[in-house]
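wait is this the right file?? whatever heres the structure
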């Protein structure tokens, strides 16, 4: 009986369909008549010829994300998303080929053995929800591109500076895997050989970002303004002279990236069980603090000593339960440990002993971090570790955190000012070319979207995007546009969702804290589409941002 009932219940839906299909057909037709299904999506390219679109740029253009170049990231690069919209009926776009990496995880580093191409290679990062931090997957070293290099459209090269695009000696492994003639060809030349009708150009990020990501250690890594301008003029001039039109993007405010915001300046935490350790540390640093006060006193009587009380106080170290500032190196400070410097003067005037002088040596350019200092994301794996296995030598606590772990206030200012200099240069070069080429280039300013996403106040947006305080008209215009979008609310509203400027599950950045995730790439693509629609008479459909994935995460 039970088995018979099972069959009967299984037949009920069929019976309903059989005996009510005529009535249902009528209802469905009425619904279609009142609410017709949307037809195939269409658009309009306006005056643009998008039939052969090429992209020129660095890691973002390539689709690098989660600290690696991998297949899914490439598929979600903003140029690929743009090309998909350009291919919609009526817009006029053609095929878009990328130098596929053909790897699910890609390659981020050589792993423990420091030997690329071995079994311990590391790949893309994922967010570990259990550990609350990015962790690497197993990777695989990439090989040469196996496709037809003459058919490529995406010429994004991770790590490429603006001057590299025209350099035949550019030996970047990501470029060499698809270069038409390694050692002779250039990225720009390969791109031009495809006879583009339209281009996107986003270079210049690495010309200052490399300095910032490395904690501001090497100023020689920053591209000079004259070299930046010369390379920009050469590349854009060649692209426009080829007959192509295109878009050029400004540089974003790098100091806002999650890479510089994930680790707080006061990351040294002590709980109630650490009171004895706190007392021990304060006893240890009493000598440094007294020496600093001694320098203030000597400044009143010795002409070769000039230490104010404010400077001494800024260098003093003390700890308490709760969150404490990271003890850091700051190469912008006067080095008290230099030969003949302030610490030597204390010894010479018998203010300290030889042993005390030796104990002061590590603190010649140290101070506790402030809220204006930006620890880099990679500092999280170094802070709190011991030096040489000594329990009393702890990085960021008793040993100053190395210069490459923190972007200091002065280094922060260097990044802001150089980014603004580059952006003013971009605006000037684009305006100059447009004056001679009938507006062939559309300038897309990405800064207002960043001001919105990061919840800047109008005043902060102005200071960040125009350090010239109105002296440079291009920067003043950028600042005005950013102020208009700066609402003071963290996150950017997209399709009814508040997406956050981080690599959390509802964020727009990938787990490396620098590169956008697919949703972030879609936002960039839409900024470009919006500009083309407004300035070129186009009607290109927008990318559905929230239909794309955010970060890659795992439970363990």
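ok assuming it is, sequence goes like this
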């Amino acid at each position: 009986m039970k088995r018979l009932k099972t069959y009967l219940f299984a037949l009920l839906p069929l019976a309903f369909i059989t005996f009510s299909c005529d009535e249902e057909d009528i209802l469905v037709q009425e619904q279609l008549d009142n609410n017709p299904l949307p037809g195939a999506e269409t658009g309009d390219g306006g005056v643009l010829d998008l039939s052969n679109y090429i992209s020129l740029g660095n890691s973002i253009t390539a689709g690098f994300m989660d600290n690696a170049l991998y297949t899914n990231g490439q598929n979600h690069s903003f140029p690929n998303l743009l090309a998909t919209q350009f291919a919609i009926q009526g817009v006029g776009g053609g095929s878009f080929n990328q130098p596929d990496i053909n790897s699910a995880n890609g390659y981020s580093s050589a792993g423990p053995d420091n030997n690329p191409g071995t079994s311990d290679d590391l790949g893309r990062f994922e967010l570990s929800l259990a550990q609350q931090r990015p962790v690497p997957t197993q990777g695989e070293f990439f090989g040469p591109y196996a496709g037809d290099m003459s058919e490529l459209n995406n010429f994004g090269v991770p790590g490429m500076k603006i001057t590299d695009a025209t350099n035949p000696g550019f030996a970047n492994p990501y470029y060499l895997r698809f270069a038409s003639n390694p050692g002779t060809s250039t990225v720009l030349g390969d791109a031009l050989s495809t006879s583009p009708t339209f281009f996107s150009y986003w270079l210049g990020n690495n010309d200052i970002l490399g300095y910032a990501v490395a904690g501001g250690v090497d100023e020689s890594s920053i591209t000079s303004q004259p070299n930046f301008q010369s390379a920009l003029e050469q590349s854009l001039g060649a692209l426009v002279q080829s007959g192509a039109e295109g878009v050029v993007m400004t540089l974003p405010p790098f100091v806002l990236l999650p890479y510089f915001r994930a680790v707080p300046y006061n990351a040294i935490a002590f709980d109630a069980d650490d009171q004895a350790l706190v007392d021990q540390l304060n006893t240890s640093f009493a000598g440094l603090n007294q020496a600093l006060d001694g320098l203030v006193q000597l400044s009143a009587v010795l002409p070769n000593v000039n230490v104010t009380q404010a400077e001494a106080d800024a260098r003093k170290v003390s700890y308490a339960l709760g969150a404490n500032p990271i003890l850091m190196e700051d190469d912008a400070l006067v080095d008290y440990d230099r030969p003949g410097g302030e610490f030597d003067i204390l010894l010479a005037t018998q203010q300290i002993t030889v042993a005390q002088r030796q104990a002061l040596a590590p603190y010649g350019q140290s101070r506790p971090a402030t809220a204006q200092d930006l620890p880099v994301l990679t500092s999280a794996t170094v802070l709190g570790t011991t030096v040489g296995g000594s329990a009393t030598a702890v990085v960021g606590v008793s040993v100053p955190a190395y210069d490459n772990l923190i972007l200091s206030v002065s280094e922060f200012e260097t990044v802001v000012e150089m980014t603004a200099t580059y952006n003013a240069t971009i605006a000037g070069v684009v305006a100059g070319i447009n004056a001679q080429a009938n507006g062939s280039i559309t300038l897309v300013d990405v800064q207002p979207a960043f001001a919105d996403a990061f919840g800047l106040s109008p005043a902060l947006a102005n200071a960040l995007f125009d350090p010239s305080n109105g002296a440079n008209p291009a920067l003043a215009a950028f600042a005005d546009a950013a102020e208009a979008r700066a609402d003071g609310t963290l996150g950017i509203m997209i399709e009814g969702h508040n997406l956050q400027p981080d690599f959390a599950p509802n964020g727009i950045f990938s787990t490396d804290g620098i590169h956008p995730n697919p949703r972030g790439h879609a936002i960039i693509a839409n900024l470009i589409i919006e500009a083309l629609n407004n300035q070129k008479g186009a009607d290109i459909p927008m990318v559905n941002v929230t239909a794309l994935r955010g970060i890659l995460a795992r439970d363990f």
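The chain has two domains: 57-262+409-551, 268-368. so i think its the right one actually
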